[in-house]
Every structure is written in C-alpha cells, then in structure tokens.
Design brief:
By secondary structure, this protein is an alpha+beta fold. Helix content is 23%, strand content 30%. It has 11 helices and 22 strands.
Length: 436
C-alpha cells in the first residue's frame, strides 16, 4: 500500500542466466530509496543480488542477500539466511573479498559487510541513526549518507574509529532552529506484545502539563519509523503537539514473523499496537486524553480509518491516500496479485473482504472529524476510495473535508502541494485539538 510499496522481482533476459537471479525493488512514495540492482564482482564471475521470499508471502517476506556464479553453472548461495532482517544495496569491495550492504533493524538502518564466501556480519555505521546510501571507492574508502533524529542527512567518510562528517550542508539551518528531542519508547500492547516507537514532546514542554497529541502512522504496512530526521514530527512539536510514532505489528525491522502478524487481519493487532502508544503517552502525563489526533498516508491512512472506527476518543483525523471499502480496490488499483495471495478472491472469501472493509461498512461508528487527501492520478490507492469515505461521513453528519491534488500520484511531489498538505494538517488539527 504505497509507502512501503510492492515487491517487484526482475529477472534477467539472458536465457542462460540462473532462474533465481532477481532483485527486489521497494518504492516509497515513488522514490527509489530501496531500489537494489544486482552487483557484479570485480572479476565479473559472480553476481550479488537480493533474493525475495516466497511469492505466496508477497511483500511481507524480507529480501535476503545472495550470490550466484554467472554463466549458468552452480547454485545461488544465500548469505543472510539466518539474519531475518531486510537487506538492500549490495556492493563488492574492490578486492572482491567482502560484500557491503544495508540492514534494516528495529528503528534503524545500518551499513554492514561480510565475507563474500559467507561468515560473520560486521556492523560498520548507523548506530543511533540511519544510513540511506553509501559508495565505495577503488581504494576501499567508504562514503555514506547518515542522519539522526536531530540532524538531516550529511555525507560522512568511514574511518577506523567510525564515521567522520564531511559535509555541513545543514549547519546554517540548524543554527536557527530549535528541535524537539526524540525519545524511544517501548510499550505493551493489549495482548502483551512489546511494540517499539518514538515519543516527541512539544518544543516548550513543561512537566506536569498535558498537551494535544497526534498519533502518526507509517505506510506500508511493511515499513517502519526510524532514527532519522523527520520534518513532520518536528513541525508538529513546534506547533505545540506531542507526537506518538509506533511500529505496530506488520512493520519491518523486527523479522518476518512480526510483519506477518497482520496477514489478512488488517486493523486488528496493529490498531491495538498504535493505540497502546497513545495510552502510554497519557499514562506518563504527556498526552491530553481529551485532545487526541491521528493520521497517516497510504497504509497509514488505512490504519487511521480502522482506528477511528474502533476508538472514539480521537477528536481529529487525517487520512491520506487510504481505502476502507477493500472490495472497491479489486480491479481498480495495482494490488490484484497481493489481494488474491493474502485475502483470496472476493467471490471465494467474501466474508473476509467484508470484515476488512469495516471502516466503510460500519462508518456509523465513526465520530471523529476527518480530513481526507489524495492525488488525482493515484493508481496505488486510487482517489475513489477517499471519495467513498468522505461521502460516508458527509451522509452521517460527521465533519469532513476532501482535498484532491491535481496531477499527483501516490506521492505528492509538487513543492507547493507539499506545503499545502502540511498547512491542511495543521489547520485541521488546530481546529479540533486546540479548542477543547
């Protein structure tokens, strides 16, 4: 569902190529953050690539690092068989002895390497932050892009003692900004499952004062919030909001079993998990239980719809590029293979499709004023889905608004529209969370 995209396996057109030669591309809102082309060894005899999981598990299966000899001889070797974490961007060392790659772990993404013949994985950079890209020089030096919750990405060079910053692109900006601290939290969901995430207090936070609080939900669902600079979190904190950002079941970063926990069961365990983060913020005296908001984009919008149809405490919601009538997605969006693999055909498993469409079919449970937004040309989660929920709430007399961005697809990439979207978020939350 968009942010964490679909998994595409691209195979070689060379009939002599091994059948298993493929790579995984995961796209975030149209960006190429996780695109990972196969990598040739320096001697041209071996290819490193990302091997997808079983087709039956679609995007829930994590990509694994594998190597295969070129020319149709020999079998592939999966190097990260026991890792149970998503890996991406394989690259060979100049001497061909090691493979470098990125590993997505709980709330982080770090640079690692391992012997090309297999062996122990060595963590090189990314502790406390996120490595989004790296490059190897011919003499083996490593440059990388690294950011943290309080600093946007900068270019670093990897030294024996750790990363050394080279660029200072954001110094002038950071000199005039005040940033809210980003705290890591772990909470227990309703069934005892540990759920990890982040809590951001308002800029001028004062102990003993409760604040309007926004639960923000990531897309995917197989994605995660990470230890990286998040403009939206800081924007909300600067406007006086606390922010709760959880990685519920279905998220990546904690292994395949954790992701698969919501298989054909959307809006159940994951809804309880994100709500547990809000309950924690209330329990420790940060969140005002009478001024709660919730919102997200793509699957984040989908889960927002599930949340507000189950919990009427939320006084404002923002649902971007979402769907609630799952039947309306069949044949109108890009997920036919995923639907049939996970839910089965609607004519065979009708009750399952109806159950997962509960925010639309039981929209009369919703009391939360909700802002819906979508790109006009979105083919991931098309506009008609937002239109249906908007109309349902209008018919029910629940305050609602629909914003359509002309010419935009699943990701809103026109700068003026991006700014407008943030302005809409702030205006909507301001109207319903600041007046209580």
């Amino acid at each position: 569902f968009g942010d964490a995209g679909h998994v595409a396996q691209l195979r070689s057109h060379d009939p002599a190529a091994p059948a298993e030669l493929s790579y995984v591309a995961r796209t975030y809102d149209g960006a190429s953050d996780w695109e990972s082309p196969a990598a040739w060894s320096p001697d041209g005899r071996t290819v490193a690539y990302l091997q997808g999981g079983p087709d039956s598990l679609i995007y829930y299966a994590g990509p694994r690092l594998a190597v295969t000899p070129w020319g149709g001889t020999g079998r592939p070797t999966v190097l990260t068989e026991q890792l149970d974490r998503h890996v991406t961007r394989p690259a060979w060392s100049p001497d061909g002895r090691h493979l470098y790659f990125l590993i997505e772990d709980d709330r982080s993404r770090y640079l690692a390497r391992m012997p090309a013949a297999g062996g122990a994985i060595e963590r090189l950079a990314g502790t406390g932050g996120v490595v989004s890209a790296f490059s190897l020089s011919r003499n083996g030096r490593v440059a990388l892009l690294l950011d943290t919750p309080l600093r946007p990405p900068e270019v670093y060079v990897l030294e024996p003692e750790g990363p050394r910053m080279l660029s200072r692109q954001n110094d002038s900006l950071l000199a005039v900004l005040r940033l809210a601290p980003v705290d890591e939290i772990s909470v227990k969901s309703a069934d005892g499952t540990t759920v990890n995430g982040f809590l951001i207090r308002p800029l001028d936070y004062a102990t003993g004062t409760r604040y309007p609080t926004v639960l923000t939900i990531h897309g995917g669902p197989v994605s995660q919030f990470q230890r990286e600079f998040d403009f939206y979190w800081q924007l909300l904190a600067a406007e006086g909001y606390a922010v709760v950002a959880m990685n519920p079941r279905g998220s990546s970063g904690r292994g395949e079993k954790y992701s698969l926990a919501i298989w054909a069961d959307w809006g159940n365990k994951d809804a309880r998990d994100v709500i547990a983060g809000v309950d924690h913020a209330i329990r420790i005296g940060v969140a005002d239980p009478q001024r709660l908001g919730v919102g997200g984009w793509s699957y984040g919008g989908i889960l927002t719809n599930y949340v507000i149809s189950q919990d009427q405490r939320f006084k404002a919601a923002v649902s971007g590029a979402s769907i609630s009538n799952i039947l309306a997605g069949y044949g109108t969006d890009m997920y036919i293979r995923e639907y049939e693999s996970e839910l089965g055909p609607p004519w065979k498993n009708t009750q399952n499709w109806l159950r997962l469409s509960s925010p639309f079919l039981k929209a009369d449970r919703i009391r939360t004023p909700t802002l819906f937004l979508c790109g006009e040309k979105d083919f991931n989660v098309p506009l008609l889905n937002s239109e249906q929920m908007y109309q349902a709430l209008r018919s029910l007399g629940v305050p609602t608004r629909l914003v359509i961005y002309p010419g935009q697809f699943h990701g809103i990439d026109k700068p003026s529209y991006q700014r407008h979207r943030y302005e809409q978020y702030l205006a909507w939350y301001g109207e319903y969370l600041r007046t209580q």
